[in-house]
Write a structure and sequence with these properties.
Shape: globular
Distance between the termini: 24 Å
CATH topology of the largest domain: Rossmann fold
Structural class: alpha/beta
Order of helices and strands: EHEHEHEHHHEHEEHEEEEEEH
Helix content: 25-40%
Pathway: Purine metabolism
InterPro entries: ATP-grasp, ATP-grasp_carboxylate-amine, ATP_grasp_subdomain_1, PreATP-grasp_dom_sf, PurT/PurK_preATP-grasp
Radius of gyration: 20 Å
Strand content: 15-25%
Keywords: ATP-binding, Ligase, Manganese, Nucleotide-binding, Purine biosynthesis
Pfam family, one: ATP-grasp
Cofactor: Mg(2+); Mn(2+)
Largest sheet: 4 strands, parallel
CATH architecture of the largest domain: 3-Layer(aba) Sandwich
Strand order of the largest sheet: 3-2-1-4
CATH class of the largest domain: Alpha Beta
Length: 238
């Protein structure tokens, strides 16, 4: 059973974006020190942290310095180099490990993981090269969304395919590099909700209130912490 890590211990955060910034701000109010690693100088998280290491996410030497200066490590998003992280850290420093990092960094692995849990997912198909898109559409159907398997956020790396005409145009004008893709059936749904779940070193699990997310053109526009139907959905999600 891991001992609690108490203030003023240093929390090392890999990634200096807005999620890291919010995490750092919360940690600072609790009395922790925060060290951020991000390639962008004066990153959003670095602005509110005690210090920032300016280095790429696959820089093992920089990650080793981060690990040496921190009591515990975490990462703010999934676009972190798993191999580099495993090379310089142990389970004690990175209690959440890297298994889920590998899964969430690849949309195809993510879909398969959820499906293997017996949970419902939209139809999907791997597209290793654009020439396979026609065949994938036959499996998934239209309308659909073509996405990069890795990376991509705020609408980047996503292409809407509402009908056959759009499909033909996308293939004819495709100029992206040969990268692994995934085709997902587009669904009509009532709303998107999300819930944060955490587990501490003593095995205690805590859930945060359900949030309702609203997107426009695949970009998150707003999140409402008190989602409609909150009580019913909170109980079901937890």
């Amino acid at each position: 059973m891991a001992k609690p890590i108490l203030p003023p211990a240093t929390i090392g955060i890999i990634g200096g974006g807005q999620l890291g910034r919010m995490m750092a701000m919360a940690a600072k109010t609790m009395g922790y020190q925060v060290l951020v690693l991000d390639p962008q100088p004066n990153s959003p998280a670095g602005q509110v942290a005690d210090d920032q290491i300016i280095a790429s996410y696959d820089d093992q030497a920089a990650l080793a310095v981060l690990a040496q200066r921190s009591a515990v490590l975490t990462y703010e998003f999934e676009n972190v180099d798993q191999a580099a992280l495993e090379a310089v850290t142990d389970k004690k420093l990175l209690p959440q490990g890297t298994r889920l990092l590998k899964v969430t960094a690849d949309r195809l692995l993510e879909k398969k993981f959820v499906a293997n849990l017996g949970l419902p997912v939209t139809k999907f198909a791997a597209v290793d090269r654009i020439e396979q898109l026609d065949l994938a559409v036959q499996t998934v159907g239209l309308p659909a969304i073509l996405k990069t398997r890795a990376g991509g956020y705020d609408g980047h790396g996503q292409w809407d395919i509402p009908d056959e005409a759009a499909l033909a145009e996308l293939i004819a004008h495709w100029q992206e590099p040969q990268i692994p893709l995934i085709l997902e059936k587009k669904l009509s749904f009532e709303k998107e909700v999300s819930m944060m779940v955490t587990q501490d070193g003593q095995g205690q699990i805590r859930t945060w209130p359900l949030a309702e997310n609203q997107h426009h053109d695949h970009i998150l526009q707003s999140t409402f912490v008190k989602a409609n139907g909150q009580a019913r959905l909170n109980k079901k999600a937890a």
